[in-house]
Amino acid sequence: MSSPGPRSSVSPSGRSWRDRRLDRDGSLGLRLTLAAVAAFLVLVPFALLAVLVVGSWTPLHELDAAVTAALHRFAADHPGWVRVMKAWTHVFSPGPLRVAALAVVVWVWRRGSRRLALWVVTTMAVGGALGALLKLLVGRDRPELLDPVARAAGFSFPSGHALNATLAAGVLLLVFLPFARGRPGGRLLLWTVAVLLVGVTGLSRVALGVHWASDVLGGWLLGGAVVAATAAAFRTWREQAGLPAGRTTVDGVAPELVDPHA
């Protein structure tokens, strides 16, 4: 009686956790593992900044104070600049940005892209909740100026305006990029609008003296990490479902949105 030969394959239930995480064909394999690692790496700078803020690292505090003092002096001498910054910070505050995101949700839902609508809601909700929770956990006070040009309530780190501007800009950019396919000028315009929304909104908070510069940087980093993480997870689901993925930064998260019936 001949002995059985060596097994040619290993049953899925007998595979190690490491092998399953690196499986290119598994639904929770290599693609999701790489997405999780990428999201983690994006989150690392925010975590390091938060540690420095909580630990009241002297060089960071001195840099924040110097930036705030310089911008406050400029604002005190230029009332027109203050009016522009106040108008911008109100128009692009978290409330209006969430309304804009909701309008996008309704639009993509009516086009039949319900999972894309869920991605937008998830990105905005998760980012907003994380920002509110971290404000309470860190408990950082806002700048105190002798002659403030604006006031704001609540804790300071991370900046809610900077965070929500990053979330909204990321969502809107990745939803509408498919419509600029084959048009470099259109793609450049979308990226320019997104960068201006994020950059000027953050600048307005420091220019008005209601946030430290590191608060704004923290909002940008956290918002970028959330968008990267949810977009990576959405991309993984699309690949698992056999849908075309493309390059996220060029084709957006749902390339078929241009022609949902194609």
Automatic annotation (TrEMBL):
Q: Which residues form the Phosphatidic acid phosphatase type 2/haloperoxidase domain?
A: 116-231
Q: Which Pfam families match?
A: PAP2
Spans traversing the lipid bilayer = none
SMART domains in alphabetical order? acidPPc
Q: Which CDD domains match?
A: PAP2_like_2
Q: Which domain of life is it from?
A: Bacteria
Q: Which species is this UniProt entry from?
A: Micromonospora rifamycinica
The identity of this protein, by name, is Undecaprenyl-diphosphatase
